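Form 7-S
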Amino acid sequence: MTAFTFGGDVPRIKLYTDEFAADPHRYYQEMYSSGESLVPVELAPGIDATMAVRYSAALKILHDPEHFPADPRRWQRTIPPAEPILAMLGYYPSTRFCDGPEHQRVRQPIKAAIESVDPNRLHAEVEDAALLLIESFSETGEADLLYDYSFPLVFTVLNRLMGCPDGLARDIADGMTLRFNAKGEESVRGANQAKTAFEQFAAAKRRRLGNDIASKIILHHHNLNDPELVGAFMSCYGAGIQPLVNLVTNTLYRTMLDDRFGGGVLSGSMLVRDALDEELFYDPSMRAFCVRYPTTPTLFEDVWLPVNEPVLIGITACNNDPAIHGDRTGNRAHLAWGTGPHMCPATPIAYLIAQGAVEQFLDALPDIQPEGEPQWRSGSFQRALEGLRVTFPAYTMPPRTLPPPILSAVHTTT
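Output:
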C-alpha cells in the first residue's frame, strides 16, 4: 500500500458538531469502513488533527512516547493564543504534558498520595454524599440526575479527599465546569478561573497541611514547585470530576434504556462493576483524548503524520473496533483510563466512587424513568449529557445522621 498524507480531497470529520454528538457510533462505522487505522478530523474550526480509530493503533501510539510525546508546546506556538481549544489542550507543567524522567518525577507524588487513600473511608464518603443527595429530592418524585446527583456527589467526594476549603472549592467547581462544558471565550474564562483557584488552594495548603491527598503531594520527597503543584491539583480535579460525573450519569441513563443492562443490574445478575466496564467500553465519558504530538514527520501505518500536529486516540472508536469484538464480561481492557506511561493512576478509586454512586441510587430509587429525550453535549472530547431529568415514585428516606453540608452543582447553559 502506498503511504499518503491527509489533505486535499480527504474530508475531515468535525468532532465538535451537534450531529456528531447526537450519533457518534454512526460516524465510527463509517471510519471502520475506510479500512484505515487513522482518520483526519477537526477538533475545532480550523484546528486539524488525526484520530486513531483502531485498538491496535492506539496501543502503539500510547506506548511510544519517543515518537508520540505529550508536550503540546511546539504545536501550541502555531495556534492563536485566544483559541478556545487551548482551554483543554494548552500546556501547563503537569504529568499530562511531559514524558520520561520528568513525567515520573511529577507523577509519583500524585500516585503515592492516591494510593494512600483508605478505601473504607472513601466508601463511607460516597455513601454519605449519595444518601444526603437522594434524600434532598426523593420525596419530590423527580430530579435531574446530572445536576442534582452525579456532579455534586463526585465533586464533594473529591473535594473532601483533596482537603480543599469550601470557598475555593466553589471557584474550582465553577471554573472546571465552564472549562469542560462551555464554548468559546467562556471555556477559556473557566480555565483561567480554575487556575487562579488552584493557585490559591496550593498556597493555602502549604500553610496548613492535613490528612488529605493535596498535603501528601506537597510532603512527597520530590518537592514539586508551585507551578508543578498547581498542575498536580489541576490534573486531580480535571481527571476526577467531569469524566467521572459523565460515567455515573451515563451509566444510570443506560440502565433506563437497555433492558438487559438495567434489568441485569437491578436483579443482581450483572455486577455494577461489570456495568460500568460495559459503559466504559461502549460509550466512555471521554470519547476522544490522550493527545500526542509527533516531533518529526512520522510514517504510521501507511499515513504520513505532520510534525507537531495533534494525534488523538478515538477512545470510543478504538474500544468498539470490530477487530476486538467479543464477550466483554469481566473484560477491563478498554482505553477509558488510557494505557502506557500516562495511564490514569486513580483507576481504583474512580471505580469505587462510580460504583458506590450507582449502587446507592439504584438501591434507593430503582424505578426511574427518563423525562423527555436528553440531549448530548457537543464538543470534541467528552461524551456528556446536557442534563438527565427523571421521574420516580416519591419515596421518604429513613432517618439518618446527616454529614456536613455539601455543594450543589453548577448548571451552565452555554
